[in-house]
Amino acid sequence: MAESPLKKGLFLYIVAMFTVYVLYSPAFNQIYIGYTSDLDNRFLSHNELATKGHTIKYRPWIIAYTEEFPTKSEALIREKQLKSSNGRQFIRKIIAGKFNTSDG
């Protein structure tokens, strides 16, 4: 019987990744920038589960852009950058290319 990896002194680390995401509402030409450690559930919340908040007004949303980070603090820094004027310009260019909008 093989010896357990834990008995050999090896440790398994569970790494939680944080995703900065951009949602796009084609019907309203709106963007939303946020971060999460669970993109699937967060996306479901924006599109279906939430009953209040900014994003319920502009449904349906699609995921237009994502970036992953190993720490929450790095994700927060990037989210703040994307919410700046230059960041929003960057996002609008991506959306214009992906979804053939006139923004950019």
Sequence-ordered SSE layout with sheet pairings:
Layout (H helix, E strand, L loop, with lengths): L17 E8 L4 E7 L2 H11 L12 E8 L2 H11 L2 H15 L5
Antiparallel strand pairs: 1-2, 1-3
What is the residue-averaged pLDDT?
90
Task: State the domain count.
Answer: 1
Query: Major beta sheet, specifics?
Result: 3 strands, antiparallel
Radius of gyration: 18 Å
List SSEs in N-to-C order.
Answer: EEHEHH
**Any idea of the CATH topology?**
GIY-YIG endonuclease
How are the strands of the biggest sheet laid out side by side?
2-1-3
Beta strand %:
15-25%
Summed up, the helix count is: 3
Can you describe this structure in just a few lines?
The protein is α+β, with helices and mostly antiparallel strands and 104 residues long. It has helices at residues 39-49, 72-82, 85-99; strands at 18-25, 30-36, 62-69.
Write up this protein.
With 104 residues, the protein is of the alpha+beta class. It has a single domain (18-99), classed as GIY-YIG endonuclease. It has helices at 39-49, 72-82, 85-99, and strands at 18-25, 30-36, 62-69. Strands 2-1-3 form a three-stranded antiparallel β-sheet, sandwiched between helices. It is globular and about 60 Å long. The protein starts with 17 loop residues before the first strand and ends in a 5-residue tail after the last helix. The relative contact order is 0.20. The model has no long low-confidence stretch (mean pLDDT 90).
